[in-house]
Design brief:
Elements: E1 5-6, E2 18-19, H1 60-71, H2 77-80, E3 106-110, E4 113-119, H3 129-136
Antiparallel strand pairs: 1-2, 3-4
Length: about 140
Amino acid sequence: MSEFGRTARENGNRGTDHGHANVMFVLGGPVKGGKVYGRWPGLDPSQLYEGRDLALTTDFRQVVGEAVARHMGNKNLNAVFPGYENQPSKFLRLLDSAAAGRRPTAVGFCRDHLQRRESSSPCQPKCDQQKHYRDHNIRPGV
């Protein structure tokens, strides 16, 4: 997600200016991929906002709200987006309902368990995870 879009046409310097709307990419296991969600009006000049920018068709709070509620388990979207009416009926249904909400409470690694392990506790009580991260060039939580 970006805080600004780009104009649909190049400017005099062969670049683009800040624009109105943008694209969002959602990645991860529970995402039902392989398609574009939302409405794509196209690049015809009649479809551009003020004749130069992509038209805004989806509020980012719909997308982020769905991830917060369905994947992260926080159903209180009013606390996340105060003043925005974000109801599940507005979600784009981009997350697989079977996988949504299934997330590890902690991700642990140890020398004997190089694979990711989803659990609420580390692999072994004496596992030196920081050393493991250094030895295998792994970033925690990745």
